[in-house]
Design goal:
2 copies of one chain form a homodimer.
Chain A lengths: L27 E3 L5 E3 L4 H22 L4 H6 L15 H17 L3 H16 L9 H4 L23 H19 L3 H16 L14 H12 L2 H13 L13 H4 L19 H18 L2 H17 L31 H18 L2 H15 L17 E2 L20 H9 L4 H4 E4 L2 E4 L5 E7 L3 E9 L6 E8 L3 E8 L14 E3 L8 E4 L2 E2 L3 E3 L2 E8 L3 E6 L4 E6 L9 E6 L2 E6 L18 E6 L6 E13 L6 E12 L11 E2 L2 E2 L4 E5 L5
Parallel strand pairs in A: 5-9
Antiparallel strand pairs in A: 1-4, 2-6, 3-22, 4-5, 6-7, 7-8, 8-15, 9-14, 10-16, 11-12, 11-15, 13-14, 16-17, 17-18, 17-23, 18-21, 18-22, 19-20, 20-21
Chain lengths: 677, 677
C-alpha cells in the first residue's frame, strides 16, 4: 500500500544536519533543532526543566555512582575498581552528552559546554590507541552483572553490551559535533567504529549485537562522514540476527529462542514485535534507517508487519510498550495486563524514535499518531514534575493490596541501571525537532505546540512559521506563515489520530462515541476544504507573508474501550481528551481509586486547574464507589466526586492507588479479606 | 530430641513381610495386609471400589494407551512405534501390578491374578538378556517428550526416568512376590538391579537418579533378598545428589540449580523441602529407609530439618504439598497460594509414604497426624466418588472467572501423564496397612477405622483386635482385645493432632478455639488415666480376652486460621471437624462460593447426610453473600443458607466454584468488570 519513498530523490538528512547532497535518504527530513524555537506552555517548561534540573541531576548522579571515574580508571589516571554493576554504564555518559548537545543547540550555555568538554576529555583519554573503548573490560571488572571475561568482543550476544555502548558513543559524538563543531569525540567515535569495521564484516568475524544500538549509531556516523562502510557494517550486523541455532529453544521463553534480542529469526522473516522492547525499537529504527539510506523492500515488508502487530495488539493506551517484566518486553498478542504492565520508559522513548523514522520514510501520519500518544502519556510519565525523579516501569494500575517486586509505584531519583533517566535527558531536548518536518516540497506540522520555525526551500527561499496554541488543553491552533517571497507549496497539517474513531491505527482501542468530528480549517478567516493525504490535511496554495491558518481540533472527553481480546480491560473504560490519556489517582478520589465505578451514564465535565500538577485540565464527575461496612459483613455503595488527571502527571503527590481502566459496571467482586501489605 | 530408634534391636520388616531376622531395621513394623481386615464404613467402600472399578479402569486405560503394547514392541513380538509420549509410561504398569498385589493380599481374586500373570509375562519378555528393561529406549522412541537418545543410562538427570521406572519395577516385583509367592517378576527385577549395580557404584560409573524412586525400590529388593549390595547402591545414588556443578544457577529457578530434583546440594546438607514434590517425597522416604536399615545421623538430621520446614511452612491445610505448578513442587516458605495450588495427587501419596516411614523410625505420632490430614483430604480428593475420574492437581479454590492453564477444575478419566491414577491404585489398597503397627513391645493404633487385626508376639502369642467406629463422622472408637493368653504389653492409641490447638505440628495452622479437649479413655467401662508418649496415649496392663477400650475423640466443628505469613489465607477461615477438612461448593450455596463471607459470629451446625456424596457429615449455617446489583452500579449483601462438604468429595457434581478458605469479613473488594471466561 505504501509507496517506497526512497524512490523519490531525497535530501541527505542525518538528524539535525542540513541537506548537503543528493544521496539516497529519507523522503522527509526533520527540522534542525537550531531552526525551531519553542514558546509552548506545555513543552517549554519541561524542556527548560530538563536543562536546569534533570541534566545537572543526571550528571551529578553519574559522577556519584562512578560512571565518570570508570573512564579515568580505564585511562590509568586513577587507581581503583570499576564502579557500578553493569557493563553498559558508559552509555549513560554518552547519552548525557547527546542530551546536552541538543540542549546546547536549543540554547547556548558556556558552562554546560565546558562541563561537556571535560567529560569528553575523560572519555577520549580512556580510548585505547587502536580505538577500543569499553571501560568494563579495560578495567577488568569481574564484579559486574553479566561479566563476560576480559577478552574483547566476546559474549556480545550474552550480555556484554559492548556494541550497545559503541552505538551510544556514536550518537553522542555526532550530536556534540553538530552542536559545537568540536571533533574530539567524533574522532574517537570514528576510531572506534573503524576498529569494529576492521574486525567484523563479510570475510571477517561475524557477530550480532546483544542489545541493538550500534546500528543506529553507525547510520548517524555515516550521516556526518558519508563513509558508506558504516552503513555496510550496520546492515551486516542487522543481517547476522537469527543466524545462530538455539537447540534448547522453548517458544514461551524468549531468552531460550533468541527472540529476547530479536535474534531468533533473520530480520526479513520477522513479522511480529517480540522480545526486549527497547532492543526491538532500536533494531527497527536501524532497519528503517537502512531502508531510507539504501532501500530494502524485504526490510520494509518486515517493518510493516511488525508495526501492525505492535500497534494493533501490543500497545498500551498510554503509549507504553513491553508488557512483560520477565524479559522487559512484548507478550503475546493482546497480552496487556494493567497491574503488572512493565512499559519501560526507555521502550516508550524507542517507540518515539522508531515512529519518527517511519513517518519520515513514508509521510504517513499514523506513525506520528503513535508517537504523539506515547510522547504525551507513557513517555513523560517516566519523569516527575520536579524533573528529578524517574519511573523505570510505568504501570497502568496501582492498588494498595497488590505489590509486585519488579514494578514501581513511586518514582526514584536514580537507579543502579540508569538507562531510563539518561534516555529521558536525550529525548526531552530533542522534542522541538519532532514538531515539524519538511518534504514532498512542503512543510509538515506534526505536533501542536507554541513555537516558531524557519524552513529553507530551494532557491534561497525561506518560510518562517509561527504556531500559537493552548494544546494539549485547548484545540485551537493558529499558524502564521511568513514566506521570504510568495510561493506555492503544500502545507501538511496532521489530523490527530485521537479525533477518532480510534485513538491510534487499528481496532485495539476505540471510542464509545464512534463519530469522527474532523477538525475545522480556516485560512485568513475563511473556512476552506482540505485534501486528506495519508492522515494529513493538505492545503496547496500560493502562500504570502502573514497568511494565517486556523486549525480547530475538537477537544472532547472521549471514553475509550479496548478490544475484547485484552482480558484486563474487558468491561472497563479509559478517558482521553485530545492527546492526553487520563487516570484516576487516590488523592483526588477520597483516598482510593480501585473502588470506583465509572458508569456510562455518568456525566463528565472538564476544567483547567492552574494550581494542580503544574497546571492541568482535569475531568470531573460523580460516580459510585464501593466500601466495606465497618463490621466487614456487607458492602456499601456511595456516590462521590470523581476527578481524573493526566496520566503523565500521576505519582507526584505521594504513594497510593491509581487506575487508568475503570470498570463501567460491577459484574462481580473478589473479596479481599484483609489488607495485604 | 528424638532418640535414634535403630539403636533398639528391631525386627526386620520390609513392608508386609513378617519378621525373619535380627538385622537392623525400623523400630516399628507395619502389620502385613494379610493380617488386617477392614469393615469400615468409610474406607471399606473406597477399597472395594478400587478393586472393582479403579484398578480395572486403569488397566483398561493403560492398554488403550498402548502402555502394554510397548512391552510387546520391545520384545519384538509386535511391530510398531512406542505408544504415548512419556519415557516413564512403563512405570504405570508396574504401579498397577503393585496395586493389584495389595488387592490380592486383601482379597484373593483368581481372575485378577491371571490378568496380572499375563501382564507380568509381557513385561518380562521385554527384558534384555542382561537385565536391561526400559521400553522407551528398547523401542527407540524419539517422538517422546524428553527423548534423550538411544544410549542406555544417558541423561538420567535430564529426564530419561530410566531409574524411576526401575524403582517401580522393584516395588511391583516385591509386592507381587509377597502377594502370590510367584518369582517371575521378582527375578526380572533382580536381574535389572544387578545390571545397574554392576554398572554404577564406587569405582564404576556415577549417577544420581533424575526422578528419585529406584532408591526405595532397591531397599524393598533388599527386604526380600537380604542382599546388602542393593542398600549400598541405594546409598551411593542418594549420595551422588548435589555433587555436580550448576554454573548458570539462578536461585529462583530450581531447574537451573538442580533443586528441582533435590540435586543442588548433598543430601546431608539439605535443610528445606525443595523442588519437585514427588521426587522430594521419594528421596526422603529412601533416606528414612537407609537410616532405619543402616543408621545415619547426618541423614536423620537433614530429614528432621526438612520435615519441619515442610510441615511448618509448605503444607496446605488439605494435606497437599507442592504449591508451584512451574516445577510441580515447593515454593518459598509460606508460599501457599490457594487458587493456583498445584498439590499433585502423587505428592500427597508421597507425603503419606514418607510420614509412615518417619513414624516407624521414631514412634512419634506427629508423623501420623500429617499422614492422616493428607490421607483423608488432599489425597483422596484426587479420585472421584465413582472411582474412575482423577485430579492430577488439587486446588483449594475455584472461582468462575479465574482460569489457569495448568490447573484442573474438573476430574478426568485419564491423563497422558498418568502417574497419579496409577499411584492411587497402589495406595488405596495399602491403606489397611496404615491403621496399625507393632513395636516397642506393643500395639500401635494409628488410624481409626472399623477393622479386625491379628498381631503376633514372641512366644507364639497373638492378639486379635477388633476396632469399631463411625470415624471420621463420629468420635467414639471401641477396641476389643483378644490375646491368645493374658499378658502385659503397652497399647498405643494415637491422640489425633486435630484435637488441637494445631491440626498438625507447628504453628502454620491453629484453631480459633485454642482449648484442647483430650480424648476420654475407658477400659471395660472405667475411665482410666493414660500416659502420653510421643503423641500416643499409652495403656500398659495385663490384657485379657475381651478387654474393651473406649476412646472418645471430641468431634467438634473447628475454625482454622493460617499463620499470618500465608498471604492468601489472611483474614480467612477454614473448617475442620475431626480429620475432615471442609470446603464450600457452588451447588450447595446458591451457585457460588466466592461471594460468601463466613463471619466469626455465624453459628454452625453439623449433620450426617446419608443421601449426599456417598454419605457425608455436612456443616451448615447462615451467612452473608455479596452480589452485584442488576445495573452493576452497586453491591448487595443478602443472608443465605451455607453448607460445607468434606473437601475430598468436591467436584463430583459438575463444574463450579469451590472455596476452602472463606473470608471472615470483607476488608475490601476487587471489582470484576465482567466475567473473564
Amino acid at each position: 500500500m505504501r509507496l517506497l519513498p526512497f524512490l523519490v530523490a531525497g535530501l541527505l538528512c542525518c538528524t539535525l544536519e542540513p541537506a548537503v547532497s543528493q544521496q539516497r535518504d529519507y523522503a522527509i527530513r526533520p527540522l534542525p533543532l537550531t531552526a525551531v524555537h519553542l514558546s509552548d506552555g506545555f513543552w517549554a517548561p519541561i524542556i527548560a526543566r530538563d536543562h536546569t534540573r534533570t541534566l545537572p541531576h543526571a550528571l551529578s548522579e553519574c559522577a556519584k555512582e562512578g560512571r565518570m571515574t570508570n573512564f579515568d580508571i580505564a585511562a590509568n589516571r586513577t587507581k581503583g575498581k570499576f564502579c557500578g554493576i553493569y557493563p553498559f554504564d558508559d552509555s549513560d555518559i554518552y547519552k548525557a552528552i547527546e542530551g546536552a548537545s541538543y540542549s546546547l543547540m536549543d540554547q547556548p550555555d558556556a558552562a554546560l559546554e565546558k562541563t561537556m568538554d571535560s567529560v569528553i576529555a575523560l572519555v577520549t583519554a580512556a580510548q585505547r590507541p587502536d580505538g577500543y573503548l569499553y571501560t568494563a573490560r579495560e578495567t577488568n571488572a569481574p564484579n559486574l552483572v553479566n561479566w563476560m571475561g576480559p577478552e574483547r568482543w566476546v559474549n556480545e550476544r550474552n550480555g556484554s553490551h559492548e556494541f550497545y555502548d559503541a552505538g551510544h558513543l556514536y550518537e553522542a559524538a555526532v550530536a556534540y559535533y553538530q552542536a559545537t563543531g568540536k571533533r574530539s569525540l567524533l574522532d574517537a567515535a570514528i576510531r572506534n567504529a573503524d576498529l569494529i569495521a576492521s574486525t567484523f564484516g563479510p570475510g571477517k568475524r561475524a557477530i550480532a549485537s546483544g542489545h541493538e544500538e550500534i546500528e543506529v549509531g553507525l547510520v548517524k556516523l555515516y550521516g556526518v562522514t558519508h563513509d558508506e562502510k558504516y552503513l555496510r557494517l550496520a546492515r551486516f550486523l542487522v543481517n547476522q540476527r537469527g543466524t545462530i541455532s538455539h537447540p534448547d529453544a522453548n517458544p514461551d521463553d524468549p531468552y531460550s529462542t533468541g527472540a529476547y534480542s530479536q535474534d531468533d529469526t533473520p530480520v526479513v522473516d520477522q513479522t511480529t514485535a517480540e522480545g526486549h522492547a527497547v532492543r526491538a525499537m532500536y533494531l527497527y529504527s536501524a532497519m528503517t534507517d537502512l531502508v531510507a539510506m539504501q532501500g530494502d523492500s524485504a526490510y520494509l515488508h518486515a517493518l510493516d508487519l511488525i508495526w501492525d502487530n505492535m500497534v494493533h495488539t501490543k500497545y498500551y493506551i498510554t503509549g507504553g510498550i513491553g508488557a512483560i517484566g520477565n524479559w522487559e518486553g512484548f507478550g503475546r498478542n493482546y497480552q496487556l495486563p494493567d497491574r503488572t504492565a512493565y512499559c519501560e520508559t526507555c521502550a516508550a522513548i524507542g517507540c518515539v524514535l522508531w515512529n519518527e523514522r517511519m513517518f519520515r520514510l513514508t509521510g504517513d501520519a499514523k506513525y506520528v499518531n503513535v508517537l504523539e500518544q506515547t510522547l504525551y502519556n507513557g513517555l513523560i510519565s517516566g519523569i516527575s514534575l520536579d524533573g528529578m525523579n524517574f519511573f523505570y516501569t510505568n504501570t497502568l494500575e496501582v492498588r494498595k493490596d497488590f505489590v509486585h517486586p519488579d514494578l514501581e509505584r513511586t518514582r526514584s531519583p536514580w537507579f543502579p541501571c540508569s538507562c531510563c533517566p539518561t534516555n529521558i535527558i536525550r529525548l526531552i531536548p530533542a522534542i522541538p525537532g519532532l514538531i515539524y518536518a519538511q518534504g514532498n516540497g512542503g512543510i509538515y506540522v506534526n505536533l501542536f505546540a507554541g513555537s516558531d520555525a524557519t524552513f529553507s526551500f530551494p532557491g534561497n527561499r525561506t518560510v518562517k512559521l509561527i504556531q500559537q496554541t493552548g494544546y494539549p488543553w485547548t484545540g485551537r491552533v493558529t499558524l502564521i506563515l511568513y514566506p521570504s517571497a510568495s510561493f506555492s507549496f503544500p502545507f501538511f497539517l496532521r489530523i490527530p489520530g485521537w479525533v477518532g474513531p480510534h485513538p491510534v491505527d487499528g481496532d485495539l482501542y476505540h471510542y464509545t462515541d464512534s463519530s469522527t468530528a474532523l477538525p475545522g480549517l480556516k485560512v485568513n478567516g475563511q473556512a476552506v476544504p482540505y485534501e486528506m493525504v495519508k492522515g494529513f490535511a493538505v492545503i496547496r496554495r500560493q502562500w504570502k507573508k502573514g497568511d494565517q491558518v486556523e486549525w480547530d481540533l475538537p477537544m472532547q472527553i472521549k471514553r475509550v474501550l479496548a478490544n475484547e481480546q485484552v482480558r484486563d480491560d474487558r468491561g472497563k473504560v479509559a478517558l482521553q481528551r485530545g492527546p492526553i490519556l487520563y487516570c484516576a489517582e487516590w488523592t483526588d478520589n477520597g483516598g482510593r481509586t480501585s473502588n470506583i465505578i465509572l458508569p456510562d451514564a455518568a456525566s463528565l465535565q472538564t476544567e483547567f486547574r492552574p494550581d494542580l500538577l503544574g497546571g492541568v485540565q482535569v475531568i470531573t464527575g460523580t460516580v459510585p464507589a464501593l466500601k466495606a461496612s465497618t463490621d466487614g459483613l456487607s458492602l456499601e455503595t456511595a456516590s462521590q466526586p470523581f476527578t481524573a488527571i493526566p496520566y503523565y502527571a500521576w505519582a507526584n503527590r505521594g504513594p497510593g492507588e491509581m487506575t487508568v481502566w475503570l470498570p463501567r459496571q460491577v459484574h462481580d467482586v473478589e473479596i479481599i479479606a484483609r489488607n495485604r501489605p
